[in-house]
Protein 1
Amino acid sequence: MGIPLNVIISSPSGGGKSTVIRRLRRKHPEFMYSLSVTTRKKRKGERDGVHYHFIAPDEFQELIDRDELLEWAEVHGERYGTPRANVAEAYRRKRILLFDIDVQGAASLKHSEPSAVSIFLLPPSWSVLKQRLEARGSETTARLKKRLETARWELTRISEYDYWITNDQLSACVTDCETVIRAELLTRERQRDFGRIDKRLLTDK
Ligand code: ADP
Ligand code: 5GP
């Protein structure tokens, strides 16, 4: 495979990235997920090595110093980063790789991997976004306020994304993501690389 299929999924906090990615992975176990490292504290129910690699700030700094992160960013006051090894492994295994990263990470990744495809999940409305974030119950009031402030800024960057998908009904949103992935697999560059075309089509009489 010459051109990998790296799929970035971003949204404001509470926009549904984790939920949509979880569904996609359940339906397509062959998809890989880029497990990030973070200095953020584990939420209730989260597991190290499943949701993130939760590490201390000095360990994160060591990864930066050793140039082991393809990109990293500070989001809501914590650091998050993508290990280079994730991308290398998916490439080696010829697998589709999903990223749950913020708008800064998406811009860096697009810069270093221009063939990456980016999807921005939009909430159906501001009030629904607030409701979902509150209902998730993962944040203190101060952190919730900060996440909503960041959301306003993130929404100003949507024109940098290839696809916009509204996350209203979850199953429709997941189908739209699958459609994007399917269409990207059908581009001529990827068909050439994935070797789906019988070359004899061009020569047989
Ligand atoms: P993110 O990962 O973008 O921060 P989550 O996936 O955690 O967002 O979703 C935030 C909350 O909204 C979760 O409680 C999730 O169950 C809920 N949620 C996500 N998508 C939908 C949807 N389409 N309809 C209703 N609730 C949703
Ligand atoms: P959360 O704390 O809600 O899990 O994630 C907060 C934000 O960090 C989300 O926008 C999420 O997409 C982003 N994020 C998670 N991992 C990474 C990463 O490796 N790099 C970047 N740039 N952002 C990330």
Note: The chain has one domain: 5-191.
Protein 2
Amino acid sequence: MKKRIISPSILSADFSKLGEEVKLLNDSAAEWLHIDVMDGVFVPNISFGFPVLKAVRKETSKFCDVHLMIVQPERYVEQFKAAGADLITIHYEGNYHLDSTIQKIKASGAKVGVALNPATPVMVLKEVIHLLDLVLIMSVNPGFGGQKFIQYTINKVTEARNMINESGSYTLIEVDGGVTLENAPKLFAAGADVLVAGNTVFSAANPKVMIEQLLKC
Ligand code: DX5
Ligand code: ZN
């Protein structure tokens, strides 16, 4: 069976005890931690930046999956890598020189991902898919945790899986937004490798058990 990964989004953590929240995840079956950086320009919300990533990095040896929802991400690639990012995912939208930013992330030594908003077709990544470690399919409009899953994005996971298989690359597919025990089986069946889960994990009575349940979907 294909490997499945859960990447809990710390956006839904209790920031007043972030260290404890990260320690709880360290002791869980989640292999990745998802870190949502928002600038209030690319998305209508501001989250956090380098100091929080550095603090998380200090507390964990898990794979730090950094999702940049910011304009001009090329300006900050080295800083995110230095702050502890293992993977840097940028958005397709608004990136006028996508290839150049992809190359910049690769040169930094981080893995590289490209995210697509719900309304952006998968086909826009056809030329660069072989360069990518990850494609992130947004299943909500980016900006906030706890939103409702957009059903039609499941078809985009299938399309991305077909595109990756045709290209022969090892690119992973990650799905981000509104992931629950109800839609997780459909997403894995459609070809997703990594599921981000914020609200579903952190609002669960037992987050560690929830992560295990998501992995078994
Ligand atoms: C939304 C973020 C997501 C968010 C997911 O813009 O990119 O990573 O934290 O949270 P849930 O799982 O609650 O939708
Ligand atoms: Zn995210």
Note: The chain has a mean pLDDT of 98.
